[in-house]
Fold this sequence. Notes:
This protein is mainly alpha-helical. About 65% of the residues lie in helices and about 5% in strands. Helix 5 runs antiparallel to helix 6. It starts with 7 loop residues before the first helix and ends in a 10-residue tail after the last helix.
Amino acid sequence: MNTTQPSTFQNILKWMIPFIGIIVIGVWMYISPEGALGKLDAIGYAVCHRIDERSFQIDDRQLPLCARCTGEFYAAGVALLFQAFVSKRKSVLPSRGILAVLVLFFLAFGIDGTNSYLYLLKQTSGGLEQIPNLYIPNNTLRLFTGSGMGIALAAVLFPVINQTIWKEADNRPALEWKNFGILVALIIFINLLILTDSPFILYPIAYISALGTLSLLVLVFMILWIIIMKQDNTFDSLRQLWLPFASGLTLALLMILSIDLFRLSLTGTWNGFPGLG
Length: 277
């Protein structure tokens, strides 16, 4: 059996990545708003407009992400965890039928997002009344179309992760119709709970959506790191993934930190973009 010894560069990275990661986490913790929800706000701040009117509220305090992004990233996080439990190392994309449904989710996300953006332009800029809206956008539609997109992202990302990391992957579809139906039903149920506006639901969703955002970024950067380091299909256990995971986390936080600093320098506020609403 051929064994590949770590290169000197890889051995150096084992020491550098955790050290750099600690520095990045420290800087991000220092500049981000105070409190646990403030740290979650700083994650959402890097990927979401955070317009107050388009966000769910806990006693006049908006969630870290707008309604659409809340749906997208909490659903992606839940869908990834769901597949981790039921699909294990299955590495094949879903069937054409399921992919067709995922495409519909993507189209609904795009149509509702475009319609909502046009409505925002008409509200804030004026002079665009001649552009018709399909309907009046609302947070309920944003939540459902966002969560559909989150399911689609996770359904494609999960088998790609398995295809990339495992030496011996399971060559079966990561999602089949039964589990796909259970997942969609679960997300619909959670969406209905969110729409009750109960703080007992919204507080956990605030955490799940923000951490789901971070998790997606970490996984994407982890996969890129593995490919760049030419380590794809070389792992046998989760324990062996500590360095790619640490690298993905460091790169994800670097990206969030950079966007946060840039946006903060432009707007001077951790809230939504000034003048939009």
